[in-house]
Design goal:
With about 725 residues, this protein is of the alpha/beta class. Helices cover about 30% and strands about 15% of the residues. The protein has 25 helices and 26 strands. The strands form 6 sheets. The protein has a 7-stranded mixed β-sheet with strand order 5-4-16-15-14-6-7, sandwiched between helices. It has a 6-stranded mixed beta barrel with strand order 21-25-22-24-23-26. Strands 10-9-8-12-13 form a 5-stranded parallel β-sheet. The longest helix is centred in the first third of the chain and has 19 residues, at about 80-95. The chain starts with 7 loop residues before the first strand and ends in a 28-residue tail after the last strand. The structure holds ligand MGD (2 copies), iron/sulfur cluster and molybdenum atom.
Length: about 725
């Protein structure tokens, strides 16, 4: 370089956080573990923009806290030792107790290649369905809704639809904090006249600037959307031609709607919103054919999560608002590769490549893999899987790229399960609350080191590329799994390069494909150079390598008869109702600057300033009633546990509701862990837990003393009675 500084290499990669899937450029100098981050202007997901988390990536690449060598019972071990021990313990457990006595719990933060290999090993060669992903906590309800309505887990729209829409409805989606780059894009559209409606019990930052905020009663979404559909029918605002040509189930749908009083006043009362606001929503929806309905965790994380998704999809099918520019129901993904996991078969109830366990599909996948042992039935979904670990049915568990000791509901019971499990393997980049339970820890490559593909919310496949050489002995997840598979004696795991894993995966999607939309035909022949150079592309990818932005433009769906299905859904209350003893509804979710269990964002001081300690947001009237003041410590209790957090008094909360962020862990604030409190109630069809509603009680925590302590290194506090929190 002209100024004489070391030459910088600019590498195009993708952000490891949310499902927006922004393109990032990392500038690095040889031999230096530091990176200058900028947005990739050529990436279609973000056109160069980044949010606070993406911008701060450079502050998270230090090797502090990293796992750099395999360990067995906390002692350093070689890869050979660790690999053969894992292989032997899994083999022995299977020989003694059958294939269903082992399980993998994986993550939307794995790359597609990792996911593919883990799934091939468990479902194909071990022959059990027991691999499930943390997307069970995140996307499972939307997946079931898509399958029921469209015949397969297909996200109809694309980000361009967010620019083209005249109306965007956010259902249980705090986009301003959780998908900031897309939110900025919609704010720009709003400045051009786009209307925004936010459906969320809390007045979030997303709701703050919206044209309409419906602060509905918790878990009343199905009632609301059914009420909307009934109103559209009353007005004659449905699309009779589209229904005739492309959709089944209209008569049954109308009959089901008629079972409830659909008068706007009854709907408004049940949803706890003002009649005039409800009417405004109905008017806006009727008036704007170009509507995108985004739905996220406020919809999915519910014991009626599937019904919520279907209720939203129903309103779109009935009005023909799908497969058209600026019009679709849009389930937005959370993690960078939540979509990749759904594609490859990370969910226990799907096999691979959008094929399930019907004899025909199962035989097709088994033939492709050359794996006669391929599982014939779904495995256990996450909540049931950990229950089976706890009661001893599962005796060997491998956790990859997720922190279940923090992120699963009823985390006390989850910790018990991990503690009792005879053999626990954890692949992670850092020490976590979960690695504390591991018999074997396997050091994985982190963002900036790993190399492969991810799929974002709009089905766009992007490359994550390495910026640094592997630190210590860390290895790619897919290779760790493939080595264990080979050590277990299985053939078919000998890939030389991530590109060859990807090619095999792409070939599976195209294999005997007579109508599966998920088809990567055009990517089945990528050589390593072409794979390295792969430009972001949206599936399906045709034989010419051309992707497709929008699905269902021809009105054909992936059902047997090509028609979409309206599936009637009836409203019901939360899985556990509030009571005299637990009168408040505890809601949990995210804050702007932290990512999940803080293993990376917790390293960046800038990101810790926005909310430095665990808090509970409460309406001032509810706080006053129990003698709580703003900034004081509060005690939050449920039937499961108790937590201590700083009270934030705010009329952004509905009366009777509490909100706690999900992020804090043993490493940052053990008493502030939300999931010790959360009930593990799930949606029957999707198995997704109701993170957004647990009956709770709040009171003042009357501390006798308090103090603070400054240290250069993270200090360890051992007194379990002490309520403490740490901020870098
Ligand atoms: N900053 C940041 N961004 C992230 C993440 C992160 O950890 N930090 N994680 C990523 C991941 S994996 C995910 S899944 C996404 C999640 O993104 P979001 O879904 O936007 O995030 P949440 O905060 O979990 O929940 C969204 C909203 O649902 C509302 N809600 C609660 N109950 C109900 C209800 O009954 N009905 C309705 N309509 N709404 C309700 C909550 O009040 C909350 O505001 O974010 C992604 N982006
Ligand atoms: N109360 C409450 N709980 C929730 C939610 C909620 O809204 N409320 N949301 C749920 C949702 S939607 C989600 S997605 C989950 C997320 O929950 P988790 O998946 O448990 O959260 P993370 O902190 O993202 O954990 C990812 C782990 O993987 C590691 N990791 C990152 N990259 C790699 C890699 O390439 N390889 C390996 N081997 N490890 C890697 C990180 O160091 C980290 O320890 O939380 C769920 N839990
Ligand atoms: S919006 Fe999501 S993908 Fe984009 S920079 Fe922020 S966290 Fe990363
Ligand atoms: Mo998620």
């Amino acid at each position: 370089m002209a100024d004489g500084s070391a030459a910088l290499t600019a590498t195009r990669t993708a952000c490891p956080y949310c499902g927006v899937g922004c393109g990032v450029i990392g500038a690095t100098a040889a031999g230096v573990r530091a990176v200058a981050i900028s947005g990739d202007a050529a990436h279609p997901a973000n056109h160069g923009r980044l949010c606070s988390k993406g911008t701060a990536l450079g502050a998270t690449v230090s090797l502090a806290g990293r796992l750099l060598e395999p360990t067995i019972q906390r002692r350093a071990a070689s890869w050979d030792e660790a690999t053969s021990l894992v292989a032997r313990r899994f083999r022995e457990t299977i020989a003694r107790h059958g294939p269903d006595s082992v399980a993998f719990y994986v993550s939307g933060q794995l790359l597609t290649e990792d996911y593919y290999v883990a799934n091939k090993l468990m479902k194909g060669f071990i022959g059990s369905g027991n691999i499930d992903t943390n997307s069970r906590l995140c996307m499972a309800s939307a997946v079931v809704a898509h399958k029921q309505a469209f015949g397969a887990d297909l996200v109809p729209g694309c980000y361009e639809d967010l620019d083209l829409a005249d109306l965007v409805v956010f259902s249980g989606h705090n986009a301003a904090w959780t998908h900031p780059v897309l939110f900025r894009r919609m704010e720009a559209a709003k400045a051009r006249g786009q209307k925004h409606v936010v459906i969320d019990p809390r007045r979030t930052d997303t709701a703050e600037g919206a044209d309409l905020h419906l602060a509905l009663a918790p878990q009343s979404d199905v009632r609301l959307w059914n009420g909307l559909l009934a109103d559209l029918i009353r007005r004659g605002a449905i699309d009779a031609d589209f229904l005739r040509d492309h959709v089944d189930g209209y008569a049954a749908m109308v009959a089901a709607l008629d079972e409830d009083d659909q008068s706007p006043s009854a709907v408004a009362a049940d949803c706890g919103v003002a009649l005039a606001d409800l009417q405004t929503f109905f008017d806006l929806f009727a008036a704007h054919p170009r509507t995108v309905s985004l739905f996220s965790m406020g919809a999915n994380q519910s014991a009626q999560g599937v019904a919520k998704g279907l209720a939203i999809i129903n309103a779109h099918l009935a009005t023909g608002r799908i497969g058209k520019p600026g019009a679709c129901p849009f389930s937005i993904t959370g993690q960078p590769n939540a979509m990749g996991g759904r594609e490859t078969g990370g969910m226990a109830n799907t096999l691979a490549g959008h094929m399930d366990f019907s004899p025909e599909e199962r035989d097709r996948v088994a033939r492709f893999w050359g794996a006669p042992n391929t599982a014939r039935a779904p495995g256990l979904k996450a909540i049931d899987m950990f229950e089976a670990v706890r009661d001893g049915r599962i005796k060997a568990l491998w956790v990859m790229a997720t922190n279940p000791a923090v992120s699963l509901p009823a985390s006390g019971a989850v910790r018990e399960a991990l503690d009792r499990c005879p053999f626990v393997v954890v692949s992670d980049c850092v020490e976590t609350d979960t690695t504390a339970f591991a018999d074997v820890k396997l050091p994985a490559l982190a963002w900036g080191e790993k190399d492969g593909t991810v799929t974002n919310s709009e089905r766009r496949i992007s490359r994550q590329r390495a910026l640094f050489p592997p630190p210590g002995q860390a290895r790619a997840d897919w290779r760790i799994i493939a080595d264990v598979a080979a050590a277990m004696g299985f053939d078919g795991f000998g890939w030389p390069h991530a590109a060859s894993v990807f090619r095999e995966w792409a070939r599976l999607t195209a294999y005997e494909n007579h109508g599966r939309v998920l088809n990567l035909e055009g990517l089945t022949r990528l050589d390593p150079q072409a794979y390295d150079a792969l430009e972001p592309v949206q599936w399906p990818v045709d034989s010419q390598g051309r992707g497709r932005a929008r699905l269902f433009e021809d009105g054909r769906f992936q059902t047997a008869n090509g028609r979409a299905r309206l599936v009637p859904v009836r409203p019901r209350g939360p899985a556990e109702a509030t009571s005299d003893q637990f009168p408040m509804a505890l809601n949990t979710g995210r804050i702007r600057d932290q990512w999940h269990t803080m293993t990376r964002t917790g390293l960046a001081p800038d990101l810790c300033r926005h909310a430095p300690e665990p808090y509970v947001e409460v309406h001032p009237d509810d706080a006053t009633a129990v003698g709580l003041t703003d900034g004081a410590l509060a005690r939050v209790m449920t039937t499961r546990a108790e937590a201590v957090a700083v009270a934030k008094l705010s009329d952004r909360q509905r009366r009777g509701s509490l909100f706690m962020p999900m992020h804090w862990t043993d490493a940052f604030a053990p008493a502030g862990r939300a999931n010790a409190l959360v009930a593990p109630m799930t949606d029957q069809a999707s198995g997704q837990p109701e993170f957004k509603h647990t009956p709770a009680r709040i009171g003042a925590y009357r501390e006798t003393w308090k103090g603070f302590f400054l240290a250069r290194e993270p200090a360890v506090v051992v007194d379990p009675e002490l309520v403490w929190r740490r901020t870098p």
